[in-house]
Amino acid sequence: MTFIANHIKDMPRSGIRKFFDIVNEIEGAISLGVGEPDFETPWPVRERGIYTLEKKRTVYTSNAGLLELRQEISHYLDNKLGIKYNPKGEILITVGASEGIDLALRAVIEPGDEVLVVEPSYVSYKPCITMAGGVPVVIETKQENAFRLTPEELVEKITPKTKALILPYPNNPTGAIMEKSDLAAIEKVLKYRDILVISDEIYSELTYTDTPHASIASFESMRDKTIVLNGFSKAYAMTGWRLGYAAGPADIIDAMTKIHQYVIMCAPTVSQYAGIEALKSCDDAVVKMRKEYNMRRRVMRKGFLDMGLDCFEALGAFYLFPDISSTGLGSEEFAERLLMEEKVAVVPGTAFGSCGEGFIRCSYAYSIDEINTALERIARFVKHMKGE
Amino acid sequence: MEKDILEILEKDSRISVEKISVMLGVDEEEVAGCIKKMEDEGIICGYTILADWDKAEKDYVAAMIEVKVTPQRDSGYEEIARRIYKFDEVKSVYLMSGAYDFMVLMDGKDIKEISHFISSKLSTLDYVTGTATHFVLKKYKDYGIVMEKEEEEDERMKVSP
């Protein structure tokens, strides 16, 4: 006899979690395994948090979140994406973008609805779809396309039951991005179809191209068929503050707000005030962090190429996704043996979907010195594996 | 690119041209050329280190001296500044706005040495009308670098999604 519901019992534990337990056993392991910035939250933001506590602003906010914060987000989205969202009704403040994923899915899924999940991708999409009663349908992206979603791959998986597509770019774990032209091809497929796009853009500030991040919501035909999810974790190094937001058409945001109201009430008040400060005064800090990430990205990629691993040029987030198949090892075996033999933790690509086989995720949210140390050890390991 | 290179060198002036070229994704020759150009143009004035002399020397004291002067008819402040900065003891000289004219930074082995310099060399210059000396008690941060770093642990979980 167990009290646990079957669909929860059957839900696999995150592959990352499994690996996390092993890593913690290894004394002195260094890691390229984290999915959060190594920078500190900019001081003005933290100071605003402290001030908020001093002023005893420690009560609930409205369900949708502080209006001032929603207004700032509205300006931000207009500036960055050229999309106008009404702060009253089209923007909802969430507990991280993670909550936004859950809310968006629960707001739209009817039992049996199919939701397309682009993989490799963040670990929580599939479980959230399942918990909402939907059926995840995986679209596997490929290294030869730089892990971008192609219109052909998309069309192939669309059925009459398809309700939504989760579009996770810039991508965790591959670091892939979708440029405006790539999105245009996807828009063509979706323009006359009733498929909602849940666009997880949490890494939007971290792209390393001449043109800034593009969102599918900025296409006129997609504006009202897209929920943009974003947050403060990656851009402002605010992971622990748990602050995100969703922007989209009023009816869906309203439905999401209803769920949010009953299960969460509101995002943390101190974090919301801090978020206002981030949007108001931290543009320079973001530019600085992006520049630093970009340097590390180049250093790390060169390191992998120099050790003879194929590594497509990832232009977003803070991950590289080197191809380790030439070592003859599978992703998990590679990650485990690398940890045992050289004490470096990386995440096997398979933690992000089965098409991640043959790859490992390496984060460059570390100092260049740390990256170089890790690269030296990985190079030694790869050389050993290749029998050179 | 000049600015990017300056920012990198400002953090670590010993870094190799090769490393800079990888970090910025440009050719080594281009980086080397750019650095040479900035040296020639005096944008890069020198390569130095940031020492914590408090730790290196038992007897060390630094001072900031406000100096009031009478500007000279033909040369304004320039000639006076030159007279002051030519002393080896003087580390920095800034022309300031506000209540005084020059800020002079210097260091020595003790207060006496610095006072002696001021009374014998600095305040005796014709056009110096007054000085006010501030001794540095402790340096917390200099040129963007915190002198006594707190041990900072990476508090992030070793692996996270």
Question: Residue ranges of chain B: pLDDT <50 for 5 or more in a row?
Answer: none
Q: What Rg of chain A, in angstroms, do the CA atoms define? A: 21 Å
Largest sheet of chain B: 4 strands, antiparallel
Under CATH, the homologous superfamily of the largest domain in chain A reads: Type I PLP-dependent aspartate aminotransferase-like (Major domain)
Order of helices and strands of chain B: HHHHEHEEHEEE
| Largest interface (C-beta under 8 Å) | A-B, 27 and 15 residues
The count of helical stretches of chain A stands at 13
List its traits.
heterodimer; A: 388 residues; alpha/beta; Aspartate Aminotransferase, domain 1; Aspartate Aminotransferase, domain 2; 2 domains; 7-stranded mixed beta sheet; 13 helices; B: 161 residues; alpha+beta; Alpha-Beta Plaits; 6 helices; 34% helix; extended
Compact overview of the structure:
The complex is a heterodimer of chains A (388) and B (161). Chain A is built from 13 helices and twelve strands.
SSE topology sketch:
The complex is a heterodimer of chains A (388) and B (161).
Chain A: H1 6-9, H2 15-25, E1 30-31, H3 43-54, H4 67-81, E2 91-94, H5 96-108, E3 114-119, H6 125-131, E4 135-140, H7 151-157, E5 162-167, H8 180-190, E6 196-200, E7 226-231, E8 244-247, H9 250-263, H10 269-281, H11 283-306, E9 319-320, H12 331-342, E10 344-345, E11 347-348, E12 360-363, H13 368-385
Parallel strand pairs in A: 1-10, 3-4, 3-5, 5-6, 6-7
Antiparallel strand pairs in A: 2-8, 7-8, 9-12, 11-12
Helix pairs in contact in A: 3-10, 4-10, 5-6, 5-9, 11-13
Chain B: H1 2-11, H2 17-24, H3 28-40, H4 53-56, E1 61-69, H5 78-85, E2 90-95, E3 102-108, H6 111-122, E4 128-135, E5 141-142, E6 145-146
Antiparallel strand pairs in B: 1-3, 1-4, 2-3, 5-6
Helix pairs in contact in B: 2-3
